[in-house]
Amino acid sequence: MEVTLGQTYQNPIVLDQEWEDYGIGDPYILRFNGKYYLYCSTKDRRVGVKSWSSDDLVNWRYEGLVTEEPVSEGAYAPEVVYWNGAFYMYTSPAGKGHYVLQSDKPTGPFVKKTDNLGFTIDGSVFIDDDEKWYFTHAKFGGIMISSMFNPFTIDAGKQLNASLGHWTEGSMIIKRNGRYFITYTGNHVFSKGYRVNYGVNHESPAAAYTIPENNPILISTANDFNGLGHSATVMGPNLDSYYIVYHNLIGRSAEGPPVRKMNLDRLVFNGDKMSVLGPTHGTPQEAPKMPEFRDEPGAAPSADKWEKISSTDGGETLLTRNGTGSDYTAEYNFQVREQDDAPTLLETLFAYTDSKNYWAARLNGASMELALIQRVNGSETVVSTKKLPQGTDLTKLHTIRVETGMSGTMIYWDGLLKIEQTGEVAKAGRIGYVWPPGTQPSLHYTAFSNESYGSSDRKVVKPMPGTMEAVHGVQEGSPDILSGITPDGSDAISLSGKGDGLRYPVNIRQDGSYLLAVNVSKASAGSTVLIETNGETKKIKLDSTFFAADSDWTKIPLGVFELKQGTQWLSLHQLKGEITLRYVEANLTVPVQEQSVVKPNQVGLVNRFGGEWGWSDYTVSFELTMKKATADEAGILLRTTNESEFKDQVKDAFMGYALSFRNGKVNLSRVSYENAVEEATGSLTFEPGQTRKVTVKLEGPTIAVFSDASKEPLLRWTDPNAFLNGRIGLRGVSPDWAISPMTVGR
């Protein structure tokens, strides 16, 4: 099958009526009744909050100012939560503490309901399945989290370990498959290194988070695309996907600060691991998929979409003409009004075959309960029953979402998981509603998609450069899915039998040379993989010398492939041995010239860089002289990318390796902004006035350091999660040291 993008969009997304000379900053998207509502920060010294609406996350309509309260002057990062008929807006005007505003519509008008609550900036609300509310906000050194007693009352809270080593802001929590994912942004908002991290835990939104190794998930410091941050996460139109919305910086406004532009990229999940398919910029990408069925039946459902059946007792059944596939997610939005004191009773139907065979989520207004019902040959079984949230007003709009597939069936009430039945799988069938006499439902947005439990993550076209999870490939043969064996809580794929393989639909950003790499288990050493791109194939043996001795998993380079811009398939197949694969990575690369002398250009007071981000394997040689006895250090940087320089940021604002010389030692550290870890050390002594020649060889994931004419390395280290490309630089050069221009070769 040919890979096609279908409808496309392109970052940045430009909207009608953006704030003049400011743009879209700190975007937040609310999904309500099948539509999306976008809110953003207000330009300083302006009053009001702007909003836009969309059906598909791509095409947006300006809705005007949703509030003009005086307190909304310079409203920072407004976020809106819907609960039980009311919309609550949380914002910190001019960054001087939070206010709560309320409306009965997502487009306002929002009215101020509280005085200043404090809590710095960037407040975000999360409601857990147990109906407890939480509020997170920004702080130096880590995000704060507080319990909420009601939408207007927030306790003092505590600090989380969600930190970017400096001022940390722009937080948001979502819950997916029993896991809490928090995203947060750091570095100064005007720095190129503004970026997004995430953490995950299984306990509670206020528990300690594990910070996975694939952080940051959003970063770019390129001149034409940088300062990525203050993100929000929202469910996609197909009811299964998730998207991350964020801003980037460009140019300068008339008042000085950069202008902000809005971007949207796909999020994908693999167990505890969350990844962004991107960031993408300046090229068409696959637009969010719509559900197979969507409609708002209202009082007069369209006959070509719905079948209406009246019973003899005055009850009604409303069914879609089309049925679902075997795995699907369905959503029902409705309000219910009682007549003549009759109890409210409404069933949302799914897996409907006939009146005697179907499943239903039953709403009982008398007992205020939600039940999962199965009817087989006319015999009814109540599978599970749960109480509705306290204070639920059924005359307000509510949502039931049903997700069913191989893992079981889950029922959500207003986004909260209320019923989870493992192994209870509803089959294909029609969806709809049934209600008895005396119940008057107002039926709103209703939809189903033949996706569930993240199944669409496998089908989405993956942008390259980028990273692709093994479990998100289209499987061929009989690969095995291995759960719980990776250090980051993700699943892996074992390719061991004849014909076992994975195929990925990919969208190549530009013509060029791409370095492909795979993260595989130690047991995969010596196995042979067949790679196919552009109709060409290469057989590649996984070189055992590249595997880290002290790690069960290592990122192994497969070689450079010439790829053409546009869509195609990329496939991997097992030819020999067993290959246990976590993910595939692709990066643009450029060759190092046979011999280059590089004198890095100064771009900051601490770090100086030169060369190309696309450099991969190379050898660096230089002369290092200690002019006089000193405790200061000299250092060089290797394979650096995403460098940033700004007065308010972490000290080591880059990703790559740092090699330092001090007190007779040479130390190799792996650096990813706030995460700097010394990984290997060796001895190299200097006398005052002494000059030594130092040579560093970078080959695949291995770095070796030599001095003078010695053939034995001072140190050698294999990084199991290696940075495989990047340029070179100087670091913290003391006047007591001298480093010659660096000679770089293959």
UniProtKB/TrEMBL annotation:
Q: Mind telling me which Pfam families this protein's record contains?
A: Glyco_hydro_43 (PF04616)
**Region Disordered: start-end pairs:** 295-324
Q: Does the keyword Secreted apply?
A: no
InterPro entries registered for this protein in UniProt: Galactose-bd-like_sf, Glyco_hydro_43, Glyco_hydro_beta-prop_sf, Glycosyl_Hydrlase_43
Q: Which keywords describe this protein according to UniProt?
A: Glycosidase, Hydrolase
Instruction: Please name the Gene3D superfamilies in this protein's record.
Output: Exo-inulinase, domain 1, Galactose-binding domain-like, Glycosyl hydrolase domain, family 43
Biased composition range(s): Polar residues: 311-324
Could you confirm whether the keyword Hydrolase appears in this record? yes
Q: Which SUPFAM superfamilies does the UniProt record give?
A: Arabinanase/levansucrase/invertase, Galactose-binding domain-like
Q: Return the similarity comment.
A: Belongs to the glycosyl hydrolase 43 family.
* Name assigned to this protein: Family 43 glycosylhydrolase
* Classification lineage: Bacteria, Bacillati, Bacillota, Bacilli, Bacillales
